[in-house]
């Protein structure tokens, strides 16, 4: 097995870990929807579900299908080595390393291994991704909220970290946990850096939330200028509907836009279609804007690296 110095990270330059030490802050929603929008634009995308809950499968629609192995293939790669085996074409240009219950086994194995060989445990995901990474333009990792071994493996494989946050009083600990985890992984991945913090599930009037978030980020991560300008607005209806229909937000927006006007249904001119929340459009616009910012920051950093 390659050690830290022997691992060729050149193919992992666009690997992004989406992480927060706190649950319920939009990690999976942002991972799935940014991945889906990048794939729609023509990027070849791999999503890695490192969460034993496997909720990414709800957003991408493969839960309880033949494709859903409960994370067994990924757990095997993490525990015993070997190249990852993504499930192909969940969407056009979008492949997935499926997560689920089997990752509990991998977590226990990595935790035990870490007490003997911390580098080997931390680099388990990086080793699994390197053989397949050249097949993709970007890799997004959906991280569990509170699993040290799996979080460490995700960060050790990533070039960039994206942190979703609600920006509320309860978000400080989540940011502190990420900062602690980043510091612990730096010996195995000294190039990992913060891509940005995305505010998720905020009210339309978010100026105070942004200021609170800026202060928290400055305290926890020692940087004030990493907040993305885009914020993902709150909509319980959209959150419920995308899981119910197994659609990404832009797909739900497309479906809602194609529904007939209510007055035409009332007149009997057309048949009623499955209704959906009109707020899907605003949330889809927010996710489009965030995706554009992610691409812009990646491009900016890559340009700076070439220039230096």
UniProtKB/TrEMBL annotation:
<dbReference type="Pfam" id="PF13614">
    <property type="entry name" value="AAA_31"/>
</dbReference>
<feature type="domain" description="AAA">
    <location>
        <begin position="14"/>
        <end position="185"/>
    </location>
</feature>
<dbReference type="InterPro" id="IPR025669">
    <property type="entry name" value="AAA_dom"/>
</dbReference>
<dbReference type="InterPro" id="IPR050678">
    <property type="entry name" value="DNA_Partitioning_ATPase"/>
</dbReference>
<dbReference type="InterPro" id="IPR027417">
    <property type="entry name" value="P-loop_NTPase"/>
</dbReference>
<protein>
    <submittedName>
        <fullName>ParA family protein</fullName>
    </submittedName>
</protein>
């Amino acid at each position: 097995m390659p050690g830290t110095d022997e691992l060729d990270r050149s193919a992992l330059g666009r690997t992004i870990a989406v992480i927060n030490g706190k649950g319920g802050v939009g990690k999976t929603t942002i991972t799935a929807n940014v991945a889906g929008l990048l794939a729609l634009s023509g990027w070849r995308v791999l999503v890695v579900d490192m969460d034993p809950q496997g909720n990414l499968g709800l957003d991408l629609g493969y839960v309880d299908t033949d494709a859903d192995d409960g994370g067994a293939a990924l757990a095997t790669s993490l525990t015993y080595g070997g190249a990852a085996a993504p499930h192909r074409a969940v969407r056009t240009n979008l492949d997935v390393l499926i997560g689920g219950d089997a990752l509990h086994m991998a977590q226990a194995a990595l935790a035990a291994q870490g007490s003997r060989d911390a580098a080997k445990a931390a680099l388990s995901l990086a080793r699994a991704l390197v053989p397949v990474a050249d097949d993709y333009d970007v890799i997004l990792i959906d991280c569990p909220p509170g699993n040290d071994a799996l979080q460490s493996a995700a960060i050790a494989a990533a070039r960039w970290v994206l942190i979703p946050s609600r920006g509320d009083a309860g978000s400080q600990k989540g940011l502190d946990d990420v900062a602690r985890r980043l510091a612990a992984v730096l010996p195995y991945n000294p190039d990992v850096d913060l891509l940005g913090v995305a505010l998720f599930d905020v009210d339309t009037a978010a100026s105070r939330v942004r200021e609170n978030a800026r202060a928290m980020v400055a305290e926890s991560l020692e940087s004030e200028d990493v907040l993305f300008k885009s914020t993902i607005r709150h909509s319980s209806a959209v959150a419920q509907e995308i899981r119910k229909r197994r659609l990404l937000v832009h797909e739900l927006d497309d479906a809602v836009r194609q529904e007939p006007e209510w007055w035409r249904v009332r007149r009997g001119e057309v048949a009623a279609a499955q209704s959906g929340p009109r707020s899907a459009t605003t949330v889809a616009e927010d996710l489009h804007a965030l995706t554009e910012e992610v691409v812009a920051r990646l491009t900016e950093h890559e340009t700076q690296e070439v220039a230096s």
